[in-house]
Write a structure and sequence with these properties.
Helix content: 25-40%
CATH class of one domain: Alpha Beta
Radius of gyration: 17 Å
Strand order of the largest sheet: 6-7-8-3-9-10
Distance between the termini: 27 Å
Bound molecules: adenosine-5'-diphosphate, magnesium ion
Structural class: alpha/beta
Order of helices and strands: EEEHEEHEHHHEHEEEH
CATH architecture of one domain: 3-Layer(aba) Sandwich
Length: 230
């Protein structure tokens, strides 16, 4: 589903250059939950952003479902993002002036659903994350865990084949964090979605099919998840 080869990303130029990724190879299959771990500043968000066509690589190959996207012109990227990815990013916050329901509807409308269809599907998605009764609330009325579930409902809108999540449990209590991971794992196992989760959170590592470690912009180890080695 995702095939990354010899990926380099440098921010800035000359003496101010930061080499965030230095020759990364990374693969994710459909139905797989891959956790990406590493210290702060090691390049996790950069890698996830390039994978999700939010950020351009400096060099290297990024294939999504067999199609090379690293060389696509800028104007093609929003379409690739909409078609392939659901994002649960810390920086991708909910729109504060829109209700939970409207936040999810907006993504569905961007994906071409009619207003009526978007309303129906957003309602179903909020039900899946057990938030039906909060559908009319603004994000400011919701707890951290509830907001994260709205973000998940929005990420699942339109059934993208790949879910990318950047520290989705970092701001949550243990129980909410477990619920979020259970939801993401279920998507991978029952619906064949590819799920990539950046995490620092050792409580959720048991949900991984694979754990990939990154340090200083290089992959330093890839190992089986605990379930598989037990
Ligand atoms: N927009 C940017 N401009 C310059 N440097 C950046 C930018 N984003 C990230 N970096 C640098 O790239 C490196 C990797 O950052 P990041 O991918 O955010 O790491 P992580 O998510 O693992 O904490 C860090 O040294 C960071 O300071
Ligand atoms: Mg980060």
């Amino acid at each position: 589903m995702i095939e990354i080869r010899n990926l380099f990303k440098t921010y800035g130029h000359g003496s101010a250059a930061v080499h965030a990724l230095e020759g990364v190879d990374f693969d994710v299959d459909a139905g797989e939950v891959v956790m990406l771990m590493g210290p702060s500043g090691s390049g996790k968000t950069t890698l996830l952003s390039i994978m999700g066509c939010i950020l351009r690589a400096t060099s290297g190959s990024v294939k999504i479902d067999g199609r090379e996207v690293a060389s696509l012109p800028e104007k093609k990227l929003p379409g690739v993002r909409l078609e392939h990815f659901g994002f649960i990013f810390q920086g991708f916050n909910l729109f504060p002036a829109l209700t939970a329901q409207e936040n999810v509807e907006l993504t569905l409308k961007l994906k071409g659903r009619s207003a009526r269809e978007a309303r129906r599907q957003a309602g179903e998605l909020l039900e899946q994350v057990d938030l039906s009764e909060k559908a009319g609330r603004l994000p400011s009325d919701l707890s951290g865990g509830q907001k994260q579930r709205v973000a998940i409902a929005r990420a699942l809108a339109g059934d993208p084949p790949i879910i990318l999540a950047d520290e989705p449990t970092a701001a949550l209590d243990s129980q909410s964090g477990l619920n979020v991971m259970q939801m993401l794992t279920r998507l991978a196992k029952q619906r064949g979605r590819a799920v990539v989760v950046v995490t620092h959170d050792s409580r959720v590592l048991g949900f991984a099919d694979r754990i990939v470690e990154i340090a200083d912009g290089r992959i330093c180890s890839a190992e089986l998840g605990m379930e598989k080695t037990a």
